Amino acid sequence: MVSGKSPFKRDHMAATLNAILKEEPESLVSSNPAVSFDLERIITRMLDKEREFRYQTAADLRASLRRMQRGIDSDITASANRISSTQPAPAKNDANRWWRSAAFALAMISIFLLISWLFFPRGDGKNHFSVWQNAQVVKVTDQKGLEYFPSLSPDGKSIIYASDLRGNFDIYLQRTGTKKTINLTEDSPGRDTEAVFSPDGARIAFRSSRNGGGIFLMKETGESVKQLSNFGYNPTWSSDGKEIACVEDDVVILAGRRRFPSRLWAITVETGQARVISESDAIQPNWSPNGKRIAYTSGEPEKRGIWTMRSDGKDAKPVRPKFHRSIRQRQFAINMPPRFVSL
User: Fold this and answer.
1) Using 50, 70 and 90 to split pLDDT, how confident is the model at 75?
2) Assessment of whether the complete model's pTM goes beyond 0.70
């Protein structure tokens, strides 16, 4: 309002968001030479990219505006005293009116920025918005039967999922952009589900009911199948591919809970040695791309919702507010497995 134009306005929404996140605004003096140094300093501080450098409270901003206004009033009074014999009285009123308008505009800007600071998410300064600006939804499969547990390969060229197309759940591989599928577990009489690619895309971890049930490994082509453990559901790889995290309960809906609490485990891929990460209830785990934390859903009454914790089981933190205690909301919480996104 002071400069007469938006500081980050661009031709397209993506460019505008990119400017908000990355670019510095044009100097106010270049748009309005009448802007004082104090006024530009205040507005520049409100637009600072670093949150801690901006005004932390509306009271702080008000104090700066009042100091500026006090200086303006002193200057105007001194000037009026010096040129009272030649300067018409309305000029002072016009000046005061202009500065009052500017102060009001700043107050409105501060309220907007304060609301944005309180209610809108704050990221790491990277332009995550434009990544999804032109996202499209594409139907990948169109076969009969149920299809669960999709996993995209690291290079984005393949997708695996579980399907009961032939009456028994098997794991299918399909190249992106094609409709041709390959049944990777066709020879297995067991129920094979919950498949997930390794970080390098060379191997697949999955849950199978064969040999008493557990976590199994195989190559991307379905060859060299071996049993890694005799327990576990929802396997997820560590970022270095050395461990697989899993849980003790297989959950699709809340009514399907069979084991409570469900502990979170980590299994060493090379040796099959297992360690307990957490004794607290955890289902539907997912390891972060940087390997530092594991996201999971908790069904504990006081901790229901999505959480993350370090891979050593410490520093558990909620990432969603508590859900309302209705059956629909509780089922909604269980039906939403957490997934990290790498941008």
Assistant:
1) low
2) no
Please count the structural domains in the chain: 2
- Judgement on whether residues 17 and 112 belong to the same structural domain of the protein: yes
Q: Does residue 271 lie within any of the structural domains?
A: yes
Strand order in the sheet with 274-278: 233-237, 243-247, 264-268, 274-278
Q: What angle do CA 172, 258, 226 make, to 5 degrees?
A: 40
Q: Which residues share a beta bridge with 298?
A: 305
> Is residue 40 domain-shared with residue 146, that is, in the same domain?
no
Distance (Å, rounded) from C-alpha 54 to C-alpha 80? 35
**Res. 62: pLDDT tops 90:** no
Instruction: Identify the domain boundary among 70, 86, 119.
Output: 119
pLDDT for 308 equals 93
SS3 state of residue 161: strand
The neighbour count for residue 106, using CB atoms within 10 Å, is 21
Q: Is 2 exposed, middle or buried (0-12, 13-18, 19+ CB in 10 A)?
A: middle
Token pair, residue 240, equals 């270095």
Alpha carbon of residue 104 to chain centroid: 36
Could you tell me if 38 and 97 lie in one domain? yes
The string of pLDDT tens digits covering residues 148-197 is: 899 999 998 999 999 998 888 999 999 988 888 999 999 888 999 999 99
Q: Which range of residues forms the domain containing residue 226?
A: 142-334
Torsion of CA 238, 127, 338, 242, to 10 degrees: 0
Dmax (CA) for the chain in angstroms is 104
Q: Is residue 274 part of a domain?
A: yes
pLDDT (tens digit, 9 = 90+) per residue, 91-120? 556 666 667 777 777 777 777 776 666 555
